[in-house]
């Protein structure tokens, strides 16, 4: 028997899409402006209830604490996530905009590397932040496998 719970709603993947984020980032006037955009996006991510901040939901490979929970409804994957770091909360939103509400096929077909390249962020992230971002993506792909 599968228990279905109602996940908290957030706008990423529905009202805020990858296209919206790419447009916002491409109109930014440099790295600092992009950084501010990422922080602002992170502020739109609802705080994760403490009941979801469990060790088994933590993503390994992240310097900051990151929790990821998912639910599958009608073959579509819905994710909630949070971090204890502001910039990481913003980076999470970039990933959720790409994957939330998608099927396994859509998740696997999405070119996340091209998406990140179009945002112009990866070159400016510390190696540990970049690795943490990749760990979040890999966890989502494993969950949707």
Q: Report the total helices.
A: 6
Strand content: 5-15%
Give the rounded overall mean pLDDT: 91
Q: Which sheet architecture does the biggest sheet show?
A: 2 strands, antiparallel
Coarse morphology: globular
Total E-strand runs: 2
Low-confidence stretches: none
Distance between the termini: 21 Å
Radius of gyration: 14 Å
Strand order, sheet with most strands: 1-2
Order of helices and strands: HHEEHHHH
What share of the residues lie within helices?
Answer: 40-55%
Q: How would you classify the helix and strand content by structural class? A: mainly alpha
Structure description:
This protein is mostly helical and 145 residues long. It is built from six helices and two strands. The protein has a two-stranded antiparallel sheet. A hairpin with a 2-residue loop joins strand 1 and strand 2 (76-83). Helix 2 (31-43) packs across helix 3 (86-99) and helix 3 runs parallel beside helix 6. The radius of gyration is 14 Å and the shape is globular. It starts with 17 loop residues before the first helix and ends with a helix.
Could you write a compact summary of the structure shown?
With 145 residues, the protein is mostly helical. It contains 6 helices and 2 strands, in the order ααββαααα.
What's the layout of helices and strands?
Blueprint: H1 18-26, H2 31-43, E1 66-73, E2 76-83, H3 86-99, H4 104-109, H5 112-119, H6 127-143
Antiparallel strand pairs: 1-2
Helix pairs in contact: 2-3, 3-6
């Amino acid at each position: 028997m599968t228990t279905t719970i109602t996940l908290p709603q957030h706008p990423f993947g529905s009202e805020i899409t990858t296209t919206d984020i790419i447009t916002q980032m491409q109109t930014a006037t440099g790295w600092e402006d992009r950084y501010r955009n990422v922080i602002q996006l992170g502020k739109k991510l609802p705080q994760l209830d403490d009941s979801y901040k469990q060790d088994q939901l933590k993503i390994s490979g992240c310097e900051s604490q990151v929790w990821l929970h998912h639910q599958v409804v009608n073959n579509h994957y819905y994710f909630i996530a949070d971090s204890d770091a502001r910039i990481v909360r913003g980076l999470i939103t970039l990933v959720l905009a790409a994957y939330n509400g998608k099927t396994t096929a859509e998740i696997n077909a999405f070119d996340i590397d091209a998406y990140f390249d179009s945002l112009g962020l990866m070159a400016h992230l510390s190696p540990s932040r970049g690795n943490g971002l990749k760990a979040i993506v890999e966890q989502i792909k494993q969950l949707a496998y």
